[in-house]
Amino acid sequence: MGNNKVKIGKLKLICHRKYSDVYEEFLDNKTYCLKVRRPSPNLAMKSIVESYKNYFNLKNRKGLVKVYDFWLKENTAYIRMEYLKDYISLVDWLKKNNNIERQKEVIIKILEIFFIMIKEGFIYLDYGYGNYMINKELKIKVIDLDILVKDRTQRLHWLGIGFLALLNNIK
Ligand SMILES: Nc1ncnc2c1ncn2[C@@H]1O[C@H](COP(=O)(O)OP(=O)(O)OP(=O)(O)O)[C@@H](O)[C@H]1O
Ligand SMILES: [Mg+2]
Q1: pLDDT, averaged across the chain
Q2: What is the CATH number of the domain that holds 44?
Q3: How far lies 72's CA from each of 75, 93, 146, in Å?
Q4: Which of 11, 48, 159, 160 measures 20 to 30 Å from 127, CA to CA?
Q5: What's the total number of domains in the chain?
Q6: With left for phi above 0 and alpha for psi between -120 and 50, is residue 3 left, alpha or beta?
């Protein structure tokens, strides 16, 4: 986590949204994914900074995109992460895969990723399917870690465990 990183590689825009742009970045002969997140009314920049601090504090980051660097400049957050080449958005995957058994398999994998974070005392709160990418082997990666918070109540902790237990029962 740094403050004044200025070296940005050659950029190719992948996705433009109101408050963020996601690029494929070519830097020092490597390919990364660079997300540039502008201030938005519904998510304070200091919460985003907190989220990535939490990410870097996790011991087990299985199922999470690899984040190499995070910095703030002029109230804009920059997230340099691994570029997921052979993955597609779970939203697109769900449009093409309507087999309930396969969908269930995928949901269980997502819950297992949540569970790893819950065990370390963190909760991922951005459930939308647009925040996951999936490959042909049904490997899932959470790509958007802007809302990863400390579990201060323990209540959600138990909710997570309960939910996972329920899903295990219907397997
Ligand atoms: N690490 C990555 N590798 C490859 N593509 C990525 C990566 N991260 C994001 N993308 C692409 O950018 C899109 C938007 O990513 P992301 O969800 O992080 O943006 P966002 O601005 O938070 O969007 P939203 O507000 O809808 O959640 C993804 O659907 C995906 O196509
Ligand atoms: Mg997102």
Answers
A1: 90
A2: 1.10.510.10
A3: 6, 33, 13
A4: 11
A5: 1
A6: alpha
Domain that holds residue 97: 10-169
Q: Name the residue at shortest CA distance from atom 4 of ligand 1.
A: 84
Residue 20 near ligand 1, beta carbon < 6 Å:
yes
pLDDT tier at 3, thresholds 50, 70, 90: low
Structure-token match 């899932």, residue found: 140
Burial class (CB in 10 A: 0-12, 13-18, 19+), 79: buried
Atom of ligand 1 minimally distant from the CA of 20:
21
Q: Specify the length of the chain in residues.
A: 171
- What does pTM read for this prediction? 0.89
Find out whether the beta carbon of 83 lies less than 6 Å from any atom of ligand 1: yes
More reliable by pLDDT, 125 or 106: 106
